[in-house]
Write a structure and sequence with these properties.
six-stranded parallel beta sheet; about 250 residues; 13 helices; alpha/beta
């Protein structure tokens, strides 16, 4: 029997959610998701946003974080691997893929001009290029930034800097699950209404990591392109981890 979507999450979103290995993933089209984020921004409604790729699923299961993430975050579906798992767990795949990198780019284009953005993550020298490129491409206001190699003490003190910068949107690119854990830990300390985990977006925006050509993206083979360019870091994620998650999904469905 096909599983039905879960009821509305505590994170308060209008989208139906699908239970994929214990993680409740919001199913939406890009424009509706962007409209939702802008509405939450305009009403100053605190919202934590994550993107469910297979790496987040693996990390959530390893740390028993599925319930905490599902309760605290609006989680959008991201990637071919997630679609495969959705087909196994729910009997169908989402109609749209809210790839975190493409979604973040589209969101930056749609945000009101007055939006103030704070960047967190990546290496100091890369972050400088990220800021310059984002301002040049999107005409946005970057009100502050912090690289991803701060000490534990500095990371705990970061909300003070974010608040001093009067940020509206905090883009956190610390990788899974570090970025999600930081957002949960400091949700109530940060005044910005939107905290969004952006993964490798800051590296992509700086040009430090290449994106696949458009035709490869259209064929849904960007994972293969990334694996080719970063085999040492990504081979396990796109082979062993995918197979382990698929096996878990099959056991869950049975």
């Amino acid at each position: 029997m096909m599983k039905t979507a879960d009821p509305m999450p505590k994170a308060n979103t209008m989208f139906p959610r699908w239970n994929i290995l214990g993680l409740h993933v919001c199913v939406a089209d890009p424009q509706s998701a962007i409209g939702f984020v802008i509405e939450r921004l305009e009403t100053r409604s605190k919202t934590l946003i994550a993107f469910a790729n297979t790496n987040l699923l693996k990390c959530a299961r390893a740390g028993n974080l599925e319930e905490a993430l599902s309760d605290r975050f609006v989680i959008f579906n991201d990637g071919v691997g997630l679609n495969l798992l959705a087909r196994i767990c729910c009997g169908r795949a989402p109609s749209h893929n809210l790839n975190g990198t493409d979604f973040t780019t589209a969101l930056l284009e749609a945000l009101p001009d007055s939006t103030r953005i704070f960047l967190v993550g990546t290496k100091p020298e890369i972050l400088e290029r990220t800021k310059a490129n984002l301002v040049r491409r999107h005409g946005i206001t970057i009100c502050g930034k912090a690289h991803g190699y701060l000490s534990t003490k500095e990371m705990k003190e970061l909300p003070t800097a974010v608040n001093a910068a009067r940020a509206d949107l905090v883009m956190v690119g610390l990788g899974n699950p570090k970025q999600e854990l930081w957002m949960m830990e400091h949700e109530n300390e940060v005044n910005a209404p939107i905290l969004m985990g952006v993964g490798a977006f800051l590296d992509f925006a700086a040009g430090a990591v290449p994106r696949a050509p458009a035709w490869i993206q259209q064929l849904r083979l960007e994972w293969m392109f990334r694996l080719y360019h970063e085999p040492a870091r990504l081979w396990r994620r796109y082979t062993v981890d995918i197979l382990a998650l698929a096996a878990a999904a099959v056991r869950s469905r049975l």
